[in-house]
Design brief:
single chain; alpha/beta; 13 helices; 8 strands; 53% helix; elongated
Amino acid sequence: MSGIANTIARSGGSQPERPPKASAPALGALQGSLASIREIDPNLIDDWGPVDRLEEFTAVNVEDDESFERLKSSIREGGQQVPILVRRSKVAEGRFEAIYGRRRLKACRELGIKVRANVQDVDDATALLAKGLENAARRNLSFYEKARFAEAIQNAGHDGATVRQVLNLSASGQSHLTKVTQNVPVKIGDLIGAAPKSGRPRWTELAELFLSRKLTERTALDILAKIRATSNSDERLELLIKEATKRGAKNSRETREITPIEGVTIKAGRATLSLSVKKSGANAEFATWLESNLAEIIKQSYAEFTDINSVDDN
């Protein structure tokens, strides 16, 4: 266990951030000795921490169902080859918390057999890093799974630096993930699924459709409801983007006008975007201030835009 513990210790304090490498030795440090491997009743093990994969809670997920059945058959016929990682529960005596290996745990539970588990006493930070390393070593998360996992880590109270360390992200890579989770409704993401073959560009395109209000949650639900049930998650994403783009093109023929505050009007048409601010009335002083600062505001906004949309598929 010392390998991962040392990695976290080195990354703390004022030292520069060094994202962990998902190497076999690093995982081996937490896989521990044979003495730490036990056979445990699956009903004594509870889930812990942020959900890292969509397959456990995606509403429509035919391909993941098939993958799980193959895993269960493999364990039934050849036994569980790779232990899951657990720690002793902090709230219930005699119980455990699963850090990673939810699918193996579920398979053993459904088969009615004990699960082989590596029992380690680790804190939350070490457990999160172990989860991230295990994902990288076994099957990489899809772009959208990374986005939801990053959001779940932060919702659990951890900061952005922890997210970047666990998922081995750059700052701009994290921004790409955040853009998607902030704009694509959770219900829509659940219905689409992990989309393992679809990377940042397609998910960002979907996020832009919601951000520009060319697509609403209600409309997206209607579109997804009409997609055949046998479509996989990548096909659902593609079909949703295609239909939403088609509808957005029809709506874009009209000029849209927005008044965010009194005296300020934004007009968006097919070819231009314009801003007008009245120099009289309640916000006359704001108009004067904006005139002096608008050029700098646009430069700063453009710099943020180019940073977030730089070529970085993390």
